[in-house]
## 1
Amino acid sequence: MKISYLVSSVCLCLLASAPAFAVSRAAISGDYVEVRSCDVYTGPCFANGEMGLTGREAMLAWSIREGAWQGVKLDGLKVLAVVEAQGTLGNVERFPHPAKAVLIVDSKADARQREALAGFARHMAGRLLDNVVGVEVSPIEVTVHPSACHNNGCSLARAENLAEIQTRCLGGADHVCGNERCFYPPLTKIHDARPAFTVAGMFHGTGLGVTFDEAGRRSAYLGTFSEPEEASALVAR
């Protein structure tokens, strides 16, 4: 399969996932990484074989470049959510499934910033984070290269001793059945969503009653996020 065909398919994912932009000033913006325990860039034949059996776990990482949430400045801080659901996440016929989650907030944040980070993550992920069973504090590192491949992969997200995500860009060998598309959409609102290959997706923390170690799948998304001032103000009321 020619690489150009894959690139065209990925571009279609970008066009399909990019939401309309409202004319308003962003209150908060940054980079986003997501990894799931099933392929998200795949053909229906593969997805139908996994649905209900895999894809119950996910990790969502937000790296805030600049901005504030509910009046609290969060420039340079990170927050990561680890989710376990009762069914395949992103199944459009049944989503959202009941789920439980652990939040990991940046150890660089003070008490008010940690609360704001948790509130921001809950807002972005919606009902997926209705049942947060624990909040951990850890150093968090996030590096994202959403538009270019690098020698060390296209993204890295790591919460010390708790969770790690590594991805690389998709290549020609990752296009298997000739009918791939972004079968499962990202679990939160992002711009420029790009599917990626998961090199590592690990959670070794407590709280969920389960740990996992996923790799070797087309199961990741990279993108950017921005939320307007109006959203932050509305949540604060």
Note: Residues 3-236 form one domain.
## 2
Amino acid sequence: MAAGLTLAALSTGNAYLVNALFYVPAVIAILQLHPPAALDGRRERFSLVSILGGVKFLFSEPIVFAMVMLDFTIVGLGYYRPLLPIFAKDILHIGPTGYGMLSAAPAVGGVLGTVIVLFFGDIERKGQLALWSFLSYALAVGIFAMCTQMALSLALLALLGLANSLQAVMRQTSFHLLTPDHLRGRAFAVFNMFSQGANSVGAAEIGFAASFLGAPGALVFGGAISAVLTLGCWIMLPGLRKFGIETQHR
């Protein structure tokens, strides 16, 4: 009976149930929010122009646009998660338990990235940190693709999570600093569309590339393109590289 309870506790259905229960505190917190009234008591008239205001802003603000496009492209080209089962089974030969460890490693790095941001507070060179994070992500993806050691693979996946966490914080912070109040909702909708869509597009792209190049080849290709793109933005967009606390109130 004890064995049966253990198996039930580890069943797929119960795992999803536990995951769903973690959403309850978030829902309660959202219900407790009291949104403020519109600025100056005015609301912008609903129109096609107002709907497209977020798109127009995104394309008119070089720093925000560059960060959004870098995230969309680099995360898409280097979307490693769909290929983790292949690496676990055919390359690292580690089985289901090892696959679970590989899947969890990026989350560990992501938590570490959040702690680093909390520790250092308001980082002055936001653009530069974002670029370093994008470059680290690209290089870590390429090295992970060629790695055959479990310990090093875990470290590289943790680095991927760390880099992704840092660039996400810098990207979102820069967005909110540069977006006018009256456009923030619509602009963030477009911003979030690209951010969330990167994973779906990346899953399709990496699967297509893997069918021709194999799983390691697809990630090496994605990492190389991502590194070149990041270095290109680093050189050609000095405003992004220098964006920081001194440009918040421009």
Note: The radius of gyration is 21 Å.
